[in-house]
Amino acid sequence: MPRLPAGSASSTAAAVSAGFGTLGLLTGSPARRASRGPGGNGLRRIRRRFDSGDWATVQYSVNGGNSFVNAGSAAPSSDRPDFPAIAISPDGTDAYVTYTNFQQPWLSTTSDPRNANVVVRHADVTPVSGAVGSFTDLERDQAGDARGSSANGLAEEFLGDYNYAVATRENGITTANDVRNAVDCPAIDAYRQSLATGSPIAAPAEEQVCPLAFGNSDIFGGLFSDPTP
């Protein structure tokens, strides 16, 4: 993936609202990330859904968001997409999506790896109708173990906060949390498991017991040319 420093890309192409949640919350929901197309009327939004499979459901509106049409999932059925973000080009002809792809189903134990990688995909859009076509891959990055990421409090992994997408007429630009360089720490795994099971132990001194690369997650950015100009 071509790299850009986080925050360097211009956001003139789309207004993106951050969020994460379930499909069922329809208004005021933190579940969606939205992008505005030409004239402010061609809205696209993407939602992570848990109820019947792992989907990143794309919806579009051509009436200013008064109603939305389902356009299917931006991810193939083999993926487990999380923290999705979507952008549409200013001319309304291209949509770009990025998400974190988990490679295992939900796990009840921290003993097993939680491998994840960043995915970027593209679809053509019909400007007149607003219809979104099929998504295809632009990038599938190297996977890493999500257990090696951490918030400052150590109790949870740190993923998704910086997954964003914007677009110009010629390019899509994305940023995402990436864990390829992060290394798992068994002591942290045990601490997190104790919190999940309701029998908390003391937080370990991670600087003494963990590998140096524990917590070494990155924010990578990519600039992608429109594959169907």
Description:
The chain has 229 residues and is mostly beta strands. Helices cover 7% and strands 34% of the residues. It is elongated, with a radius of gyration of 18 Å.
Short synopsis of the structure:
The protein is mainly β and 229 residues long.
Mean pLDDT reading: 80
Order of helices and strands: EEEEEEEEEEEHHE
Shape: elongated
Number of H- or I-type helical stretches: 2
Tell how many strands the DSSP assignment holds.
12
Q: Into which percentage range does the β-strand content fall?
A: 25-35%
Helix content: under 10%
**Poorly predicted tracts of residues:** 1-34
Structural class: mainly beta
Radius of gyration: 18 Å
Terminal residue distance: 20 Å
**Main beta sheet, described?**
5 strands, antiparallel
**Oligomeric category:** single chain
